[in-house]
Description:
Helix content is 50%, strand content 19%. By secondary structure, the chain is of the alpha+beta class. The chain has three domains: 4-64, CATH 2.40.50.140; 67-134, DNA polymerase, domain 1 (Orthogonal Bundle), CATH 1.10.150; 137-188. Strands 3-2-1-4-5 form a five-stranded antiparallel β-sheet. Helix 2 (67-77) crosses helix 3 (84-92) and helix 7 packs across helix 9 (177-188).
Amino acid sequence: MIGYLRGKIIEVMNESALIDVHGVGYEINASIHTLEDFQTLLGNEIIVWIHTHVREDALILFGFHSKEEKRLFLSLLKVNGVGPKMALSILSGGRPAQIHELIEAGNAKGLSALPKVGKKTAEQIILTLKGKLVSIDEGSKTKSETLTQITSALLNLGYKSQLVDQFVATLPVEVELEEGVRRGFQTLSGALS
C-alpha cells in the first residue's frame, strides 16, 4: 500500500489533483480544503499522505495535505455506512479540527450540516468516534515545534528573517526537520544577508 507520495503538483481539478513523482503522474482524490492548499502550491514539491483504496474493479488513491486529515478520514471509515467518498465529502465540509470538535461535543446538528451527512449518520459518527479520536492539538503542537526549529536553523545559517518566514509558510504540514532545513538551504541559497 502507498503511505505517502513526494512529488510536484502539476494540476488541480474539481475533485482530484495530479502529482508527478519521478515522471509518473498519480491522480489523487482529495477534499476541497486539501485541493485549495494544493492550488497554492502548484508546481512545488510536497508530501501527500495517501490512503490506498482497493476495489475489485479499481485502485483509488485518496490524498491528504496533513496527517490529521488522513487520520480523521480513516476514523470516519470505521463508522457504519460511511465509505471513502462520503468521508471525503465530510472532510470537504470543514477542517479536521472543526469536525473533531463537532464529534467530541456530540453536536449531531452541526455534523448533519456537513455534505452528505443526515441525522442518522451524524448520530452514528458520534456514537462510533466520540472520545476515540486523537486530539488534533497534539499533531499541531509537533508541527509548530518542527517549523520553529526549521526557522531557527535557517536563521542561524544567515538567511534573512523575512525570506525564512516566507519559505517556512510554504512547507508541507508534516515536513521533517532535516528535510525542511535541506529544502530551505536549496531554496534560499544566494539570498544570504
